[in-house]
Amino acid sequence: MPTWEPPGDHLIPVQHMRPGDHAFVSYDDDEVRWEVMTAFVRLGLAQGEKVVLFPDPWLPEAEVLARLDYTGRSTEAARKQGQLVLSSMRGLIRPDLRFTPERQLGRLHTATARAAAEGFTGLRAFIDMRWVPDLNADVRVMMHRETHADALFDGRPYSEICAYDRRWFSREVLHAMDRAHPRSLLERLGSLRSVRGGDGSVHFIGDADTTARRPFSTALELALSGSAGTRRLTVDLTRLHLLSVGCATALLALADRATGHELVEVRCDRVHARTLHRLGAGSVPRLAMTEVIRPC
Amino acid sequence: MLTPDPATSADGPVDMRTATCLLRRRFTARLLPQLRLLVEECALREGLAEPRRGEFVLAVDEIAGNAVEHAGGSGRLVLRRIGDELECRISDSGPGFSETVIPELLPGLDGAHHGRGLWLARLVADRFAVRPGDTEVSGARGAEVTLAVRVR
To answer: Per the CB < 8 Å rule, is B37 touching A47?
Structure first.
């Protein structure tokens, strides 16, 4: 089976999820599936948001809690305080039994308002889409919901990840759902993707950690080679969560050696800009940095 | 895990502040992404704002990565809140090293890249120290790197 590789234009790491974001992610591995969920839940709790989990309905609650707690401090206190809630799609639409988009969106809209009234900074929901076969829902109706949910997100403190099991949903549905969501997430923590823009720019997404130095450098070398004609290259790091010293140094060294280029523009957030400055960006004459402010 | 601890070092009590243990993990290369997530989560909870939070996670990752690469593939991390500081101690059981291996000045881009990670970690820290590890394994004492940043 060919590897699933979603388009990169709206791809972000889970750590970049913010209120108002509606994201797609998919999995086909029963270990890897927990990585995005635990990161989303734990970071949400840490920043004072209420978190509602709609896990795979075929999984026992004890396993979900054990997976959440295995990685760090216990979430028991958050559950007791009502900050973390394990729910189900059946529970959300109760007392009704049949899923309709209007019913589900209405309940989530109310839950967001309730979270704010309870003093939380927002609401985030992680929804494993295996509720669709569990409720025997029509996939086309579910797809309609996913493409008509903007009112739930626009200007509201609500974010949502919809996780699709690639072993259950067809490739056509997966592609359509990836396109339907404004955001798409990297499946694994600590992974790096590079994507070329139509203007020859190169975009890095995820974690450029020490182990990613070789693919990071290779993608940059190819982008520099491909932009030799225009003599200008934009390197976009705004969707990068971690920029290791090794990768930052590789970027500076390659830009320093790119004597045929007039300009290498690096677009990045404040942390990466400070790292690059400290590592000597000021000594690379053709390098220009543009700091992009990400919403908190 | 929120266990009050005395704020001590091998040389005796550091000060009278109470230390609260936030995280205690063993790690290998495979677990570094998870370790970064947990450190970021703790830093968020403790109120360390950006850009210092991102720099703290980066510095911890550089030191942990150094332990994995040069000190036997694994290490141990203890993250504590001590007064207004977040303190991270990373220990390993490798051959050990001292702070003198960290270059005083940033090496040029045309030279070897060794030591830059530790150099940056020391630069972004409000408190930084390297000392021999506590336990001797197969003749190697390892090293313990302490890195602390002020939360406010």
So the answer is: no
Q: What is the tens place of the pLDDT at every residue in A186-233?
A: 999 999 999 999 899 999 999 999 999 999 999 999 999 999 999 999
Unique residue bearing structure tokens 């509606």? A22
Query: In a mutagenesis test of the A interface, which of B70, B109, B122 is the best target, namely the one with the most A β-carbons within 10 Å?
Result: B109
Q: How far is B7 from chain A (nearest CA, A)?
A: 21
Q: Note the pTM of the prediction, 2 decimals.
A: 0.92
Helix H segments across B23-145? 32-45, 52-70, 116-124
Contact B37 A71 (CB under 8 A): yes
Search chain A and give the residue with CA nearest B121: A245
Q: Is residue A3 part of a domain?
A: no
pLDDT per position as a tens digit, B48-72: 999 999 999 999 999 999 999 888 8
Domain C-terminal end among A157, A185, A213: A185
Residues 6+ apart with CB under 8 A from A216: A192, A194, A204, A208, A247, A250, A251
User: How far off is chain A from B11, nearest CA to CA, in Å?
Assistant: 30
User: Does the domain made of B3-100+115-150 have the CATH classification 3.30.565.10?
Assistant: yes
Same domain (yes/no): A207, A179: no
- Determine the Cα–Cα distance for residues A237 and A203; give it in Å rounded to an integer: 6
